[in-house]
Design brief:
Layout (H helix, E strand, L loop, with lengths): L1 E9 L5 E6 L7 E5 L5 E2 L7 E6 L3 E2 L5 E2 L4 E4 L7 H14 L10 E9 L4 H14 L5 E2 L2 H6 L4 E2 L14 E2 L3 E9 L3 E9 L2 E12 L5 E4 L2 E4 L1
Parallel strand pairs: 4-8, 9-10, 9-13
Antiparallel strand pairs: 1-2, 1-5, 2-3, 5-8, 6-7, 11-12, 13-14, 14-15, 15-16, 15-17
Helix pairs in contact: 1-2
Amino acid sequence: MAVARCRVVDGAGTNTLVLAGLDGGAGDVYTLGTAELAVEGELADGAVVEVRFDGAVMESYPAQFSGVTGVRVTEQPVDDRCGLYLQVLEDLWEVDPGLNTDLEELGVDFSGLTDLTESEKSALAWVFGNAHGLMPITGTLEELWQAGCLTPMTESAEGYEDSVALYRWENGCLFSLTGSAEEGFTARKWASGLGAYVFSDCTAVQDADGTWSYTIGAEAIS
């Protein structure tokens, strides 16, 4: 029998949890159905749980534990900052919706977040993409540009260096987060050098139950 310690990223109010391994790296993400499981303690998004299973993991994405016999909610304080960032991403999705209407590709860049583990970032990306029916593509804007995901809007003038500002992501949009809940953060969505929306100077406050709320300092569009 094996035990995995995970953070509940999403799904505590449903019968399917999305979990991020506490000791894992990028991609250490699991889903777990709880409808027929014995659960010790009160599940909450942001809680740390111990999953008892037979030691095998099914190779899917997200992965799934094999032979789960129970789940225990630990006494570690609830910290639902993944839920905070999911709310920010959904709020950003709703503003200036023309930038992300009828998307065929969804990019995410959480490399600038300093208060989530790599597994939590991966789980956050998957939950956000799954909510919109898309498998997220992870990478910075520069990486997407260099990988050939972007299309030039115009040719660069002779004698001038090529720039990502001259490109657009046809049928795609990149959502990025930088900073931290404690020290402030910025959220941005980018569809082209002429089409982007930004929440900047955002501040967040954690409530006693471990959930977070946030305030946008300024909004900008280009």
